[in-house]
Amino acid sequence: MSQKVHIQYCDPNSILMINSTGRMRKLYTPFLVLCTKDSGTIKADTKVYVQEVQSTPKDELVYIIAGMAHLHSFFRIEARF
């Protein structure tokens, strides 16, 4: 994806994506992401499904994948809108 996209937590089953032109898209779980850096047992360049979304007390977005929590910054959503 060539555009910069801001991702915002909505609820445990969805996120809101906002692109650089202000267009919004709500994405519901499960959704596919690409791992960009090794995260726990998930290796870089692996596509996995996000089962749930959480937010930490520091307002960091966390993806639940195969029952394990991973920071969203280790993943990329391949979506165009």
What is the structure about, briefly put?
By secondary structure, this protein is mainly beta. The protein has no helices and nine strands.
Write up what this structure looks like.
This protein is an all-beta fold and 81 residues long. The protein has one domain. The strands form 3 sheets. A 3-stranded antiparallel β-sheet has the order 1-2-3, with no helix packed on it.
Give me the strand/helix succession. Answer: EEEEEEEEE
The number of strands is: 9
Query: What number of structural domains do the residues give?
Result: 1
Q: Give the helix proportion (percent range).
A: under 10%
Instruction: Categorize the overall geometry.
Output: globular
Largest sheet: 3 strands, antiparallel
Describe the secondary structure blueprint for this structure.
Blueprint: E1 5-11, E2 14-19, E3 24-28, E4 31-35, E5 47-50, E6 52-55, E7 61-65, E8 68-71, E9 75-76
Observed structural traits:
single chain, 81 residues, mainly beta, three-stranded antiparallel beta sheet, 0% helix, globular
